[in-house]
Each structure stands twice: as structure tokens, then as C-alpha cells.
Amino acid sequence: MKIKAYERFRRAYRGLPSEVQKRVDKQIAFLSENIHHPSLRAKKIKGRVEIWEARVDYQHRLTFEIVEDTILLRVVGNHDVVLKNP
After folding, report:
1. pLDDT of residue 1
2. CA-based radius of gyration for the chain
3. Which pTM does this prediction carry?
4. DSSP per residue over 37-55, as a string?
5. How confident is the model at residue 66 (pLDDT cuts 50, 70, 90)?
6. Under a CB-based contact definition with an 8 Å cutoff, are residues 31 and 73 in contact?
7. How far out from the chain centre does Cα 32 lie?
8. Domain total for the chain?
9. pLDDT digits (tens, 9 = 90+) for 24-53
10. Is there a contact between 71 and 79 (Cβ–Cβ < 8 Å)?
11. What is the bridge-based pairing of β-strands 60-67 and 43-44?
């Protein structure tokens, strides 16, 4: 699948420590190959239409949506902050 990112995702990504950015990059690679990769733990967010979350590490999550053959990255950051406004 193709990967694109909203500006909101890019800004949040730039604000992350470099080691977290590396983990995000790794998870995005998995996401592009297989949305059901076990380390992603990808699932739809309850109460949101077609918005998914995926695990980066214990504290960080990223959200995305799927439009045709493209994954649109929405936001990345601390678990609680990201899920309040995915």
C-alpha cells in the first residue's frame, strides 16, 4: 500500500525524539506491507468511522485511515494524547 501523511502527522513526528522516530519508521514499513503485522496491534478506534490506531511502542501510538490503496497517517505521539483526538 502507498503511505501518505497529513501535515499534522509530520509536525508531530518532527517533535518526537530520534529513537522514537526510528520506531515509527519501522512500524510504518510494517504497515505498508501488512496492516495485520503482530507488532502493530492495529485496530479500529471505537466510536470513530474508519480511523485506526497502531502501536509504536508502549507509550506511543499512530493513527491512520485507509482510502482505496493508500494509508493516510493522521497523528503520532503519546498514547493518551493521540487517542483523545485521533
Report:
1. 87
2. 11
3. 0.92
4. -TTT--EEPTTSTT-EEEE
5. very high
6. no
7. 11
8. 1
9. 999 999 999 999 999 999 999 988 889 999
10. no
11. unpaired
Any long-range contacts for 9-14 (C-beta under 8 Å, 24+ apart)?
9/62, 9/73, 9/74, 9/75, 9/76, 12/75, 12/76, 12/77, 13/76
Q: Where are the alpha helices (DSSP H) in the chain?
A: 7-14, 18-33, 79-84
Q: Which domain holds residue 48?
A: 2-84
**Residue 63 · residue 86 · CB < 8 Å:** yes
Rounded Cα distance between 80 and 86, Å, is 10
**Cα 68 to Cα 66: distance, rounded to the nearest angstrom:** 6
Beta bridge mates, 43:
53
- Which residue do the cell numbers 496492516 mark? 35
Question: Looking at residue 60, which CATH number applies to its domain?
Answer: 3.30.2310.20
C-alpha cell at 22: 526510528
Using DSSP's 3-state secondary structure scheme, residue 61 falls into strand
